[in-house]
Amino acid sequence: MRAGSVQAGEGTAPADLIAFAHRLADFARPLARHYFRTELPVEAKADASPVTVADRAIEALLRAEIRARYPEHGILGEEEGGDFERPLTWVIDPIDGTKSFITGMPLFGTLIALVSGGRPILSVIDIPALGERWSGTGDAAWFGDTPARTSDRALADARLFATSPDIFEGPDAEAFASLSRAVGLRRFGGDCYSYGLLASGHCDLVVEAGLQVYDVMALVPVVQGAGGVLTDWEGCPLTPDFDGRVVAAANAGLHAEALAHLRARP
Fold first, then answer.
1. Residue-level pLDDT at 52
2. What is the pLDDT of residue 266?
3. Structural domain contains residue 8
4. CB 259, CB 233: distance < 8 Å
5. Which end of the chain is more exposed for a tag (fewer CB within 10 A), N or C?
C-alpha cells in the first residue's frame, strides 16, 4: 500500500482491512436502494447542501459496524463529523451525490476510505443503484473482481468530466474553460462515479472544486491503484486540509498537461 502503513495484527492486516471495507459497502448498498426513488424529506444543511434520512441512516449503520469491529479506529463522516486524531481513521461519505440521489439519478455512491497519517491507504467506491463497485489500495485497483486500469490518452483526445460547471468561479472558471478547450470532449455529472470510470479507462480527466475531505479520500487509492494521478490543482498530494480543488488524470503525462492549464489561471 502507498502513503501510509498498517501494523499487521489481529484483524488489521491489509487483506482484513480491505475485506472489512467491502463488508461496510455491502451493508450500505441495500439501505441506499431502499430509500432511492422514494418520497423523502430533503433538508438543507448550514452550507446549503441537501441531506436526507438516507444519508444519516447509512452513516449511522457504518459507524456502528466500525465501532464494533475496530473500536480503536477513528471515524470521520459527512453527517456526524470526526477528526484524524487516531492512527487509523475511517472516512465515510454515505451518499456522495445527494443531489443525484434525490432527483432519481443512479450515479450517486457510497465512499469508504481508511486513512493513515493523513493519507488514504485503501478504499471502496460503491454505486448502489447500479450494483457496481471499485476498490483500491494505491498499488492496485479493481472494478468488481477485475483489475482496473486507466487509459494512456493525451490531452487532445482526453475525455474530461466535472460534476457541474457551477462549481468553478472567477479565475478557476477561466482555467477550467481553458482546459475544456484543449480536450477531446467534456461531460458533466457523475459525482464519484466519474472517478471509477477514469480508473477503468472510460474517461481520462476529472476536475473539481469545492470538495470536502470526505468527498475525496476514497478516490485516491482507486485512481492511483489503477495507474492514474490525483492531486490538488498545484500538483500536491491530497491531505485532510486540501483546498477543495482536485484534478484526477489517467496518466502522469496527461496530469502534467492538465496542470499547465489549471495553473495558468489569472
1. 85
2. 57
3. no
4. yes
5. C
